[in-house]
Amino acid sequence: MGFFPDEVILLILARLPVKSLFKTKTVCKLWYRLASDKYFVRLYNELSAKNPMVLVEISDSIESKSSLICVDNLRGVSEFSLDFLKDRVKVRASCNGLLCCSSIPDKGVYYVCNPMTREFKLLPKSRERPVTRFYPDGEATLVGLACDLSRNKFNVVLAGYHRTFGHRPDGTFICLIFDSDSNKWRKFVSFREDHFTHMNKNQVAFVNGALHWLTGSCSYILALDLAYEVWRKISLPDELSYGTGNRVYLLESNGRLSLIQISDAWMKIWVMKDYERELWHMVDSVSLRCIRGLVPGIFPITQTGEYVFLATHKQVLVYHQRSKVWKEMYSVKNSATLPLWFSAHAFCSTIFPCD
Fold first, then answer.
1. The F-box domain covers which part of the protein (predicted)?
2. Using CA atoms in the order 314, 319, 324, 328, what is the torsion angle rounded to 10 degrees?
3. How confident is the model over 184-204, as pLDDT tens digits?
C-alpha cells in the first residue's frame, strides 16, 4: 500500500477534532509542529468555520455546577469544562472558536479563552473604573467578540447606556473596545435612542469586519465597524412581517448576515447578498407544522446553507434544509434551571491563539 501525499494527510488531519489533533503530536516531528504551522492552522480554522455547532451551558440546580455541552452536526454531543479559568464565569459571546466570559463573583473581570486548546487571556481592567455604571444591572448591555481568523487578532466590545451614580441614564451610549494587538481598551461615546432586549443582546454577528446587533424594536440592525469605530444602521428586508407572534433573529451564515423570522407556522430565512447596498434575499420558507408544540419556545442559534440549529427549553434541534428533516440532537436530562436557548451560542472548533 502506497503512502498518501503530504497534502492529502494535511487535509485529513485538518478535519480532526482539536483534542484528537493534539494526540497525533506524538506520531512524528512533522505532526508535532502542525499546531504551530501557519499554513495548517489557517487550513484547519477555515474548514472548522464551515461546521458551526451549538454551545449550551447546562446548570445543575442541585449541585449549583455548570458544564458546557457542544452539539456538532457531524460528531454528535461532547462535554467540556472551563475549569482551567479557575473562576466561576458565564459565557457572554462566542466567535470563531473563542469565548468571551465574564466573572460571576468579580464584576468587570473578563476572559477570552479557547475551550478546545484550554488557552485563555485575562483582559486588563479598563481604566473606565465605574464599569458598574452601565445601566440597568451594572453590566454592559451589549457584549461582542470579533475574532479575525485571517489576521490572528480579536476584539472585545462592551457597550451600554451610562448612568452617573444616583442618577437616571442620560441616553449616553458608552463603547469600550479591547484590541488584542495593543492589549489595551479604547473608549468612545455616542448617543443611541434604541434599547436592546435581554434576549437579543447575546445575538451578535461578526461579518465584514463589523459586529452586528438587532435592536430591541427590531426596526434595524446596529453595526459597529471595528476599523473606523463608527456605528452604522442597516435596514431589514422589506418583506419582514411585524406584529404579534413574529420573532426575528440575527445570525451569520457562511460569512454573510442572515435573518430568521419565526411565526406560528413558518420559519423564513433571509441572507444579505450585497452588504454595501443592503440587499436581502429570501433563501427558504420552512413549515413548522411538524414541530408545532415547540414553536413558542424555539430559537435559532446558528446555521449554514445546509442546516439550521435551534434551541428550545430542553432540546437542541437541527433542521436539514435539503431533506426537510427535523432531528433532535440533544435533550437535557437533569433539572436544569434555565431554558437552553438562554445560554446557547454559535460555536466552531479552532486552534485560534488567544494569549
1. 1-47
2. -40
3. 999 888 776 666 654 555 678
CB environment 257-289: b (16+ within 10 A), e (fewer): bbbbbbeeeebbbbbbeeeeeeebeeebebebe
| pLDDT value, residue 195 | 64
Rounded CA-CA distance 244/36 in Å is 52
Angle 39-40-42 from CA coordinates, rounded to 5°: 65
In this structure, are residues 274 and 281 in contact, taking their beta carbons and an 8 Å threshold?
no
Tell me, what amino acid is at 338?
Answer: L
Q: How many CB atoms lie within 10 A of CB 111?
A: 21
How do 119-122 and 110-114 pair as beta strands? antiparallel
pTM of the model as a whole = 0.85
Beta strands in 44-171 (DSSP E): 53-60, 65-72, 76-80, 89-95, 98-103, 110-114, 119-122, 134-135, 142-148, 153-162
